[in-house]
Amino acid sequence: MWILAIDPGTTRSGFVITDSLLNILKSGKIENTSILFEIARVISERGDVWLPIEMMKHLGKNVSAGGATFETCVWIGRFKQFAIDSGLSEDRIKFIYRHEEKMNLCKTMKANDKSIRIALAERFAPGEPNFGKGTKGKPGFFYGVANDAWQAFAVAVTFYDKITRGE
Questions:
Q1: Has residue 92 got a pLDDT over 90?
Q2: Residues 27, 133 contacting (CB under 8 angstroms)
């Protein structure tokens, strides 16, 4: 089983590909059109793929959504439809909400990107320097993971934890 998790954006998105043990095989932040190629490549190479995508949720009373929010929503739909058109069963595509990541990883809704990175480093790379990235001479678990790929990994881990719990 591979997991291709996406933290969608308006023009570029963070992504991570993991194996069934949540080892990071590939990660980055790339153009959304390139994410489509990653989806097709992983589906054709692997077959046993899950595609969790971070999904937007209502922002709350008196909070308006701008054009960037709606553009990101369009890309979420494009990623899902492209995966289906590439042969992935719709039941293999799951939406993960930001509040689920916060509660799963940090046990609080007050969590932010940094606290999520800390929680991930404590879980997967305890004691390793630089949030588990390590150094060039001694790479850690998160070596090479940057920017929105951290959030994509949070999506992957939350999805994994949910299926492990039978949710």
A1: yes
A2: no
Q: Is 162 exposed, middle or buried (0-12, 13-18, 19+ CB in 10 A)?
A: middle
Amino acid 65: pLDDT: 59
Could you give the C-alpha distances from 115 to 37, 102, 119, 138, 146, in angstroms and in order? 31, 9, 6, 24, 15
Q: Residue 28 to residues 31, 148, 162, 165: CA-CA distances in angstroms? A: 10, 7, 24, 28
Segment 131-147, tens digit of pLDDT: 899 888 889 999 999 98
List the domains of the chain with CATH numbers. Answer: 2-164 (3.30.420.10)
Q: Map tokens 């790929």 to a residue.
A: 149
Place of tokens 């291709």: 4
18 forms bridges with which residues in the sheet? 3, 24
CA separation for the pair 141, 155 (Å, rounded): 17
How far apart CA 147 and CA 61 sit, in angstroms, is 29
pLDDT digits (tens, 9 = 90+) for 2-32: 999 999 999 999 999 999 999 999 999 999 9
